[in-house]
């Protein structure tokens, strides 16, 4: 029973860290979406966002 409690504690810490990471990622994504909506849509705004998340940004901008 005791090792199970320890495992549960580790799982809780792991889920907490995962929740923190997802929350920070979602906030960053929301900020990017807001910035994309504020900035005028065009080749300049699309070219500035070059990187691993460029595909998602180009998909949101259309």
Automatic annotation (TrEMBL):
Transferase in keyword set: yes
Entry keywords, A to Z: Aminotransferase, Pyruvate, Transferase
Recorded GO MF terms: transaminase activity
Compositionally biased spans, kind Low complexity: 40-62
Region (Disordered): 35-62
UniProt-recorded name of the protein: Serine--pyruvate aminotransferase
Organism of provenance: Giardia intestinalis
Upper classification of the organism: Eukaryota, Metamonada, Diplomonadida, Hexamitidae, Giardiinae
């Amino acid at each position: 029973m005791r090792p199970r409690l320890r495992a549960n504690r580790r799982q809780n810490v792991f889920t907490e860290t995962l929740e923190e990471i997802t929350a920070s990622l979602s906030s960053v994504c929301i900020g990017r979406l807001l910035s994309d909506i504020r900035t005028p849509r065009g080749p300049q705004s699309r070219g500035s966002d070059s990187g691993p998340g460029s595909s998602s940004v180009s998909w949101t901008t259309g």
